[in-house]
Amino acid sequence: QKEVEQDPGPLSVPEGAIVSLNCTYSNSAFQYFMWYRQYSRKGPELLMYTYSSGNKEDGRFTAQVDKSSKYISLFIRDSQPSDSATYLCAMWGYGQNFVFGPGTRLSVLP
Amino acid sequence: GAVVSQHPSWVICKSGTSVKIECRSLDFQATTMFWYRQFPKQSLMLMATSNEGSKATYEQGVEKDKFLINHASLTLSTLTVTSAHPEDSSFYICSARWGGLEEKLFFGSGTQLSVL
Lengths: 110, 116
Hints:
The complex is a heterodimer.
Chain A: E1 4-6, E2 11-14, E3 19-25, E4 32-38, E5 45-51, E6 54-58, E7 61-66, E8 71-76, E9 85-92, E10 99-100, E11 104-109
Parallel strand pairs in A: 2-11
Antiparallel strand pairs in A: 1-3, 3-8, 4-5, 4-9, 6-7, 7-8, 9-10, 9-11
Chain B: E1 4-7, E2 10-13, E3 19-25, E4 32-38, E5 45-51, E6 57-58, E7 67-73, E8 76-81, E9 90-98, E10 104-107, E11 111-115
Parallel strand pairs in B: 2-11
Antiparallel strand pairs in B: 1-3, 3-8, 4-5, 4-9, 5-6, 7-8, 9-10, 9-11
């Protein structure tokens, strides 16, 4: 079993849709959870950073962490064509290395 | 967020030459930087971990003599692709670890290397 699993997509949605991106993980030592957005031929950009279980909202983005289920999600409301990118989940814990999911490619169609 | 600068953005070189890529943390000190390789439509592949003042730690299968990493200061790490060949053509990305109670990784903008 991979340490972090993520639906690779690709995922296509119409503009204005709500997008749900998800990752599951196996290492209970992970405590910090991140979502990165990567445009083609660019470096990943940190979007959301959360600690332990709970929700965090930033504009149209909401990150959810359920440590009991080892499951994290990123929701994008009112999706825009500019949201078209690859989204990577990442996680870290004390004494652990940063681990990335394989990424989900999202296309938001106008 | 913190800024990581990576140069050059793209480079074209002849087979057999060496290419150096720089990664700088502009507004914070990074004791640890990471180098990745990424093929089209694939995820990041960690190549090596670079710690300031010590030798880099390479992932399995990455040739140490081909990919030379130097982390001489708290704000600069370099990756040199030596005797480059067409199969080394790829997108290379660095990241720097921002320390503190909540550690974060910030990425450079990447370097597209094309070896002719």
